[in-house]
Specification:
Layout (H helix, E strand, L loop, with lengths): L8 E8 L4 E10 L7 E5 L7 E5 L7 E4 L4 E6 L11 H11 L3 H10 L6 E6 L5 E6 L4 E4 L7 E4 L21 H14 L5 H8 L15 E10 L4 E5 L9 E2 L24 E2 L7 E5 L10
Parallel strand pairs: 3-15
Antiparallel strand pairs: 1-2, 1-10, 2-11, 3-4, 4-5, 5-6, 6-7, 7-8, 8-9, 11-12, 12-13, 14-15
Length: about 290
């Protein structure tokens, strides 16, 4: 779906200091599909377990794995498409196979990409980066001199990738969201999880203040606190929904808190949203010998 559909809009940023390593992301998408959005726990034999969020179930849009590697995508409507992995499958590969930012970047240099996207990456050691890539090019963006953060939205910002922008596509005010994140991060001296949540909630400028009547909204928001090994998620627009801690995965540990029983577990757990529809929280345990996705 990331190769053809233009209606996937998101904002990502990450910051790294002596006391904080935080990844933050808003997922902006269609209100008409909000009942299909899911949070998933994956644990497959031969792969790292992870907690991820998605609009497409098997593809992932952001997540953090058991080794404290967090990754989030933003879609860029492509100029070119080739056979390969789309943005959601690239991200899932990184969750399952990589432990650090360096490993993730090395993998992206080798994997065939089918779509155009940015991938914001942070690991527990504090290494952060944004990778802008499409089927032809890849550019790694690190924090600028004197800065401790990276940020991106639904466009390429590096000089190398700028020619692959699609200005004729409605990007849901991507440039404004990007500038809101950058400006807040440039002004703020004391980076905290609360600060990240406030940026995502639009308290520093336009970020999630969509008109739901236009079939657009922030459908979930997530903060991965990699120093304290915590996951905070708002299941809906963060200007109206609270961030709640998710303790079902223990970062740096192999074991998940999964429902015992069969290889596949799909409990009917729905979390009600004041915004009009539930977001399904789906717990999945799978083993490769009976994988039937």
């Amino acid at each position: 779906m990331y190769c053809f559909e233009p209606d996937h809009k998101c904002t990502c940023f990450a910051f790294s200091t002596e006391n904080e390593v935080v990844f933050a992301r808003n997922s902006d998408f269609l209100v008409s599909l909000e009942k299909l959005y899911m949070n998933c726990l994956y644990r497959l034999e031969g792969s790292y377990g992870f907690n991820g969020n998605t609009t497409a179930f098997v593809e992932m849009e952001d997540g953090v794995n058991q080794h404290g590697l967090a990754v989030g995508l933003t879609f860029v409507y492509p100029h070119l498409r080739k056979p390969g992995l789309n943005a959601g499958m690239l991200l899932r590969y990184l969750m399952e196979k990589c432990r650090t930012t360096a490993e993730a970047i090395a993998a992206l240099r080798k994997l065939p990409a089918a779509s155009a996207q940015t991938l914001t990456i942070a690991d527990k050691s504090g290494e952060i980066a944004v990778v802008e890539c499409n089927p032809k090019e890849l550019e790694v963006i690190r924090p600028r001199a004197g800065e401790r953060f990276v940020a991106t939205a639904n466009n390429f910002n590096s000089e190398k990738m700028r020619s692959y922008r699609n200005p004729e596509i409605d990007d849901w005010r991507s440039g404004e969201r990007y500038q809101t994140a950058r400006s807040a991060l440039e002004r703020k001296g004391d980076y905290t999880v609360d600060f990240a949540e406030d940026v995502l909630a639009g308290k520093y400028g336009f970020m999630c203040q969509y008109d739901r009547k236009q079939n657009a909204d922030t459908v979930w928001s997530v903060v991965y606190d990699l120093k304290r090994k915590q996951i905070w998620r708002a299941e809906g627009n963060p200007s109206r929904k609270h961030f709640n801690r998710d303790d079902r995965i223990k970062l740096d540990q192999v074991a998940f808190r999964l429902t015992p029983g069969n290889s596949f577990v799909f409990p009917a757990q729905l979390i009600d949203n004041e915004r009009g529809g539930p977001m399904a929280t789906t717990t999945i345990r799978a083993v490769l010998h009976c994988l039937s996705l």
